[in-house]
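User: Sequence recovery, please. Input:
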């Protein structure tokens, strides 16, 4: 039986959890009360201003209920505003507030520092290759999932 430490998917999951923990500690250390998932959703809305909740959930690899809870928190923090999509009252879109846009500007250097600190011992060439391999794995898994869904 394969050891967990030699299983690439276990290590990927562990890496992501460690990164989120580290990044969250860095945010708290700098006085920001925001989770990584909240930051990711703000960043996604900034980059995709016409996105609806389903599109946000799909991009974040989260279910709609989880995204809905995060969105409610962001609304309560006055970070985003929910608005009805013109022509479709069942679909909401989200608008960033000035405070969230300012926050993204302030957090950008911190997130870049996090990335630099973590990737410091890995060459650009290694990062590029790792990204290529991860994309191949994602593509392979997606194709296998699609096969199951068409049965």
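Assistant: Recovered sequence (151 residues):
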């Amino acid at each position: 039986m394969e050891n967990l430490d030699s299983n690439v998917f276990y290590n990927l999951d562990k890496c992501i959890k460690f990164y989120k923990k580290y990044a969250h500690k860095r945010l708290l250390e700098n006085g920001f009360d925001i989770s990584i998932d909240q930051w990711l959703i703000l960043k996604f809305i900034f980059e995709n201003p016409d996105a609806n909740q389903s599109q946000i959930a799909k991009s974040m690899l989260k279910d709609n209920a989880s995204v809905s809870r995060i969105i409610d928190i962001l609304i309560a923090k006055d970070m985003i505003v929910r608005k009805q999509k013109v022509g479709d009252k069942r679909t909401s879109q989200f608008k960033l507030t000035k405070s969230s846009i300012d926050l993204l500007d302030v957090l950008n250097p911190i997130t870049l520092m996090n990335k630099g600190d973590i990737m410091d011992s890995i060459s650009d060439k290694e990062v590029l290759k790792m990204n290529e391999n991860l994309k191949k794995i994602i593509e392979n898994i997606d194709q296998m999932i699609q096969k199951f869904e068409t049965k």
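The longest helix spans residues 124-150.
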